[in-house]
Design a protein that fits this description.
By secondary structure, the protein is of the alpha+beta class. It contains 2 helices and 4 strands; from the N terminus they run αβαβββ. A hairpin with a 4-residue loop joins strand 2 and strand 3. The chain is globular, with a radius of gyration of 14 Å.
């Protein structure tokens, strides 16, 4: 993402009162989980407070999960998301 696209939200909220509540990324050919690399990147990101959505894409499968934590420094807890086929 171009940093100018999300700069209004880096300090928490935009001038309109909007805020980032979730960030997503995909795992191609891998399971739906937060890896140690993902966790390191979350803590280094501009949005360590945001929920993390992971979409797992395989040749014959599609899965998604949302990961939430009670605050920065707390562990993430994951929940599956039902993915409907078109």
């Amino acid at each position: 993402m171009d940093p100018t696209d999300y700069q209004p939200w880096v300090k928490g909220e935009s001038a309109d009162g909007e805020r980032v509540t979730a960030v997503y990324h995909s795992h191609v050919g891998a399971a739906c989980y937060l890896s140690s690399v993902d966790l390191d990147l979350v803590d280094l990101s501009q949005f360590p407070h945001a929920e993390q959505i992971v979409i797992s894409v395989g040749e014959e499968q599609l899965a998604a999960g949302i990961f939430h934590r009670e605050g920065i420094g707390h562990p993430f807890v994951g929940h599956p998301v039902v993915v409907a086929a078109p």
